[in-house]
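Tokens in:
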């Protein structure tokens, strides 16, 4: 009998949210009647993902266990670990805790509009291509600037995508890429540009192509107070549609 493939999600909730101008970390702020983080966990709970590794801020593990996981009844959250200084440190700690799976999805806990459809597309993309990310084509013209804030070039808009999460990978692939990143850092070196997502680690260290799958224009990351206002509008619209269906 063919063994079924196991998918684990790493949900990142270790950010400080400095741009949010709030004493409460953004992932714990209430959106509607629930913490922002709860929405991602809720999406994974009803998805094909087998388990969730929740990566929190240092010292916030017990708070998340009681106030988020147990309060929300999220049975798929099997492991809670403390994150690191940078996002990529937190991802690596999540990968170490998830070393018993075939595929892994890496999700920003501050993206509350994750859907089961996006999750399924990412899982399928990881199975077919080995590495994929959710994203959407940009709507605006994009300009690349030089150090003096002069326009340096204008990329073809049809080829430019806004990258989102989840980012999904074959587990051995993403673990190897992150192992190499950690080894580089252990030697006192860094990548030439800051690590802002997981796909670039795979691209840089393994030279692998990463496939794009459709996310959603509503799949925003809450980073600033303005984002919170947009999220509240999205949530209100979604609930209004649900009420009409009932």
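Residues out:
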């Amino acid at each position: 009998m063919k063994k079924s493939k196991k998918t684990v999600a790493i949900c990142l909730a270790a950010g400080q949210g400095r741009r949010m101008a709030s004493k409460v970390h953004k992932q714990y702020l209430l959106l509607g009647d629930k913490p922002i983080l709860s929405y991602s966990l809720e999406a994974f709970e009803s998805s094909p993902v087998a388990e969730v590794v929740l990566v929190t801020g240092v010292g916030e593990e017990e708070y998340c266990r009681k106030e988020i996981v147990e309060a929300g009844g999220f049975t798929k959250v099997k492991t809670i670990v403390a994150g690191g200084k940078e996002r990529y440190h937190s991802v690596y700690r999540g990968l170490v805790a998830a070393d018993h799976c075939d595929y892994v999805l890496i999700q920003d806990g501050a993206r509350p509009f994750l859907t089961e459809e996006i999750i399924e597309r990412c899982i399928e993309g990881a199975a077919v291509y080995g590495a994929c990310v959710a994203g959407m084509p940009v709507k605006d013209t994009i300009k690349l600037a030089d150090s003096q804030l002069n326009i340096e070039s204008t990329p073809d808009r049809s080829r430019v995508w806004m990258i989102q999460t989840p980012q999904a990978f074959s587990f051995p692939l993403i673990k190897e890429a992150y192992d190499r990143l950690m080894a580089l850092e252990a030697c006192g070196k860094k990548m030439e540009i800051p690590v802002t997502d997981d796909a670039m680690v795979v691209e840089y260290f393994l030279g692998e192509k990463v496939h794009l799958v459709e996310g959603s224009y509503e799949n925003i990351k809450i980073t600033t107070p303005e984002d919170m206002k947009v999220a509240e509008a999205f949530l209100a619209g979604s609930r209004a549609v649900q009420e009409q269906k009932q």
